[in-house]
What we know:
The chain is of the alpha/beta class. The chain is built from 13 helices and eight strands.
Amino acid sequence: MKNFVYNALPCRVVFGAGMLAQLGEEVERLGLSNVLVLSTPGQCAMAERVSAQLGGLSAGVYDQAKMHVPRETAEAAVAHAGNENADGCIAVGGGSTIGLAKAIALETGVPIVAVPTTYAGSEMTPIWGLTTDGVKKTGRDMKVMPRTVIYDPELSLSLPSELSVVSGMNAVAHCVEALYAQEANPVISMMAEEGIRAMAQGLPRIVKNPEDSEARSDVLYGAWLAGTVLGSVGMALHHKLCHTLGGSFNLPHAQVHTVILPYATAYNSDAAPEAMEAIKRALDAKDAAGGLFDLNKSLGAPVSLEAIGMQESDLEQAAEIASSNPYFNPRKVTREGIVDLLRCAYEGRRPES
Ligand code: NAD
């Protein structure tokens, strides 16, 4: 057993079908009495239902959440929360909505209750992000760590199958990188392996029947584990590459994670043998990178950068950006290595560890 340091993050988790009914009690438990309900425009109806359920505890709905939290969106939301004298935020949605709640909390210190409806994992992390002039800056601050998270699988029934798959693979990516993280520890590794297993077993059932509530529950359990490991240990090459491709080339967040994961795993395979063994066990596959690629294919997910809108002529520049600043990765990150990785990913060739 290697030496390790484990920092457990404080967060109350309420999990189960129908648990949204407990939201009012959870709000009162935190001593809050006037909470602003946040959503994207697309999930406004869901947010209105939540606000109605809260009755006098609600300060109304603010439905302007946008992907990657543009600074202007954050500033308008902070001003709105101030005008309404909100003493807390309820984020009903995916990473974009939870990201907006975090921007408000970062500025004002009000507590967050998160009600995630995707599998992205932001609800379990103290990581915030803010985009100014197209450049996304991220940081860690315990002020933005949600105090309570309600995981109700009934809310994800409406997440279309294709989005469920890529969001689920985004969660798998957190688990894969947690297994070879610099701060990896036995508890987090156990959660990461179990997270991959829950996703690999649950996602095919969602593709078969998006209304399978047992499968929704199993996958949301995987998402909880994935969010927990993301909040607890640092990420590496895969997340750096996805950040670059999403931020500088405007590719869709969860789809990029889905496509890149098998290739980043292959890149790191020789340098992280224990992690590869855990991935193989979780997938019940002979090869970690190949197994992730096969899982993507079987789920009907995109498997090439070309399929999600990347231009071949941008590959060199992407490799340049992703290898320009040093960061931890189990295998040394070289420009040539990343060009090869991106070329394989562009073409959608099956990688092998
Ligand atoms: P998202 O929140 O942008 O949601 C995608 C779309 O799906 C939105 O239009 C949303 O309204 C819709 N949607 C969500 N749930 C739905 C449901 N149940 N039914 C129908 N439609 C639904 O996407 P995401 O992938 O959850 O989040 C991505 C963002 O989160 C990115 O900006 C990413 O950087 C950030 N993120 C942050 C962290 C962190 O720790 N800070 C972690 C993961 C992701």
